Amino acid sequence: MTVAKEIMHPGAQWISRDVTLDEAARLMRELNVGALPVADENERLCGIVTDRDIVVKCVADRRDPATCTAAELCEGTPRWIDANADVEEVLHEMENHRIKRLPVIENKRLVGIITEADLAQHLTDDQIAEFAEMVYARK
Known about the structure:
Layout: H1 4-7, E1 9-10, E2 15-16, H2 21-31, E3 35-39, E4 45-50, H3 51-59, E5 81-82, H4 87-96, E6 101-106, E7 109-115, H5 116-122, H6 125-137
Parallel strand pairs: 2-3, 5-6
Antiparallel strand pairs: 1-7, 3-4, 6-7
Helix pairs in contact: 4-6
């Protein structure tokens, strides 16, 4: 049985809720990633900020990324998966919530993140097709 920690991209990094979006963008560039999980003061997942969020919800609205924080962009209930969850649970979570990035948690700590690229490397063509249909085509 394949589990989440076997297909995840290891070494994901948190940012704090109070990190400004210009700082988040610089870190994304440095890490060569398009999303960063956001943690609260207790180091609990409270959301994810993407490069698209920064552009669409901050820059395009003429907000200042030097003063706008990650907390201001976090919306909804954050989704995550346990490191030992099987791949079917991973797909279920991502498909049902139509998400493209899923933080992986072990012992209440972030250990990685599963992205579409990770799925493409580890799943069958049929599983990938089902994921794409559920996340992109479903209304």
